[in-house]
Write a structure and sequence with these properties.
GO cellular component, one term (chain B): membrane
Largest sheet of chain A: none
Largest interface: A-B, 37 and 48 residues
Structural class of chain B: alpha/beta
Number of helices of chain A: 14
Keywords (chain B): ATP-binding, Nucleotide-binding, Transport
Protein name (chain B): ABC-type polysaccharide/polyol phosphate transport system, ATPase component
Number of domains of chain A: 1
Order of helices and strands of chain B: EHEEHEEHHHEHEHEEHEEEEEEEEEE
Domain ABC transporter (chain B): 44-269
Shape of chain B: globular
Number of strands of chain B: 19
Structural class of chain A: mainly alpha
Distance between the termini of chain B: 70 Å
CATH superfamily of the largest domain in chain B: P-loop containing nucleotide triphosphate hydrolases
Number of domains of chain B: 2
GO molecular function, one term (chain B): ABC-type transporter activity
Strand order of the largest sheet of chain B: 5-6-7-3-8-9
Order of helices and strands of chain A: EHHHHHHHHHHHHHH
Oligomer: heterodimer
Radius of gyration of chain B: 24 Å
Amino acid sequence: MNNQQYDWSIEPQSSLLDLKLKDTWAYRDLLWLLVRRDFVSFYKQTILGPLWFFIQPLLTTMIFTFVFGNLAGISTDGLPQPLFYMAGITAWNYFADCLTKTSTVFKDNANIFGKVYFPRLIMPLSIVVSNLVRFGVQFLLFIIVMGYYYFIAKADFNITWAISLFPLIVVLMALLGLGAGMLISAMTTKYRDLAFLVTFGVQLLMYATTVIYPLSTALENYPSYSWIIEYNPMTPLIETFRYGFLGNGTFSWGALGYTTGVTLVILLIGIVVFNKVEKNFVDTV
Amino acid sequence: MSNTIIKVENLSKAYQLGEIGTGTISRDLERWYARLRGKEDPFLRIGETNNRNIKGNSDISWSLKDINFEIEQGDAVGIIGPNGAGKSTLLKILSRVTSPTSGRIIGKGRIASLLEVGTGFHPELTGRENIYLNGAILGMRRKEITKKFDEIVDFAGVERYIDTPVKRYSSGMYVRLAFAVAAYLDSEILVIDEVLAVGDAEFQQKCLGKMGEISKGEGRTVLFVSHNMGSIAELCNKAILLRNGQLIQHGDAQQIINRYINNEENQQSVWHKSSEKFSSQFFDLLSFYIVNEHKEMNDTGVARNDAKTGVCLKFNTNELNADFCYGIAFYDQHETLLYWSYQTDKSKVEWLQPEIGTNQIIIWLPQHMLNQGSYRIRPLASLHYIKWLVAPNAGPSIHLKILGGLSNSPIWNDARPGLLAPVLDFERI
């Protein structure tokens, strides 16, 4: 062995642009095992557990239909109300879950992070993939409800070509949630009070996204404020989702491109900040 | 140095004392401003050593300061030092759990570290699933684990229960399984913290044997932190002595062990609280010392074999808990555990429960028991079966020296043969 040749070095600072993606790839087996752990432990712990997957979106849909659809009378662009809300909730929930779970990743894994090294990025990634299972179940429920309205209730909606963008939408939601979650998780290790804001913030953000109203209505009724909704990177995703599956919504390549750009920037910043904080996180717990 | 595998260069690690998170935004700004002007970081002060007994005048404590050493391939290195010397910090940096403040470590080959047994074990998963998960956390690929699976199960001796969730395992089985995964890691360097404090004696021997095999048989490098000089002497050929974050000596293991055991600084018989390390609402240890028969502090720590001697624990209790119990662990000079005296030795109704406020409790040691020599005592405290408040080997240690009084016979005024020196009664029937 060459005396001068060392494989690794442990130093105080590393380059900001070193994203450790190669390192993370080497641990890909761990990612799948963690996803499996989440899945297995979830099923083993409760009988009602998996049922919550169904109950939560169903109840939310019913309440939204009642409050926003019937009481407030907000337009749903001519779509059956439950279908309209469910589409929004299903997509939104995935994003919100990715964001909130990722934002507590340091706190939740303080014990394991303090004892063994592996590329920390694996943890948030496993959260995003684990949540995909839950999203899958809720999505299936949405398809069933869609089928009911199409075949039995004979409601007036149609699937459009934009449905082919579905995988892209899911990936963008996951990455946006991941990036923003990592940013928040990095900040909460230092300024703890931020954690309390997350749940509240996600709720607020939902109202600034077109989950309970169509973008067209917002543009029509509040033209001076609707820019908030338009610049929200989640809006194009929800709108495209609805346009693809229900044939109603505001779709534009420009908006989708904008969201993709924002997502990549947030993700990049998220990874950089996360990697920076990860190095000394153990000392501040 | 032809075969250097790890090279540590000017390694330092600073910790911030006190409440972290108060005013950090303003400090961050101040730090950033100083750096902007190209000045030195105002919160790092050079030249201060980390001595727990002297309260420094800055909030920064150097857990490690300018450490330099090299380790050669195939060495088994014991890392020795009193509590707070920086042993664990060094292992944490080597394991990449935390990063140094300055300096660097370079090396070659894969490092596997075992700072805790069973990191990431999930109670709901079966033994098999946990082997894969734990192995992957420690850096093994799935294929490697499959290849070694049978050996791991065999070493741990849990074949029958491999498909049972580990929450049904006894604590011994759990530890055996966890150690086995780490022992079969295919790494050039193995870093081990005091994990052998758990498990039964037989398994401890098996672990030491396995570690010896790893370093001597397979030529892999082992770094081992322990308070037990016996294990270090058995396992290691080299040792590093740390004190107050500084490297005192690096070299032959036996030589350093002797130096450590005979060191005067290591002979404190009174301990006073200097940090919040052993504080909780149930048990806030204030001081810990040897007392004589009049319940007075014996700060020399020297007592006769036949004198009535006790250990006093002085602590604050802010919250009562029915599961709270406490006691002491008693070691010989090689840090081999002789016994524990814990409240669980008696049934729960007999436990001497603390009161809210300051408690002073004396635990009387048996007379006519110990041979002449040096002993160490550490406090223990826990919420029984819930968690450790002061874990075994983690607490501060005080020193007791037994000198004289070994028997009334004029022959034995020096140490008697054997570990113990009881005076037994003889009777004809």
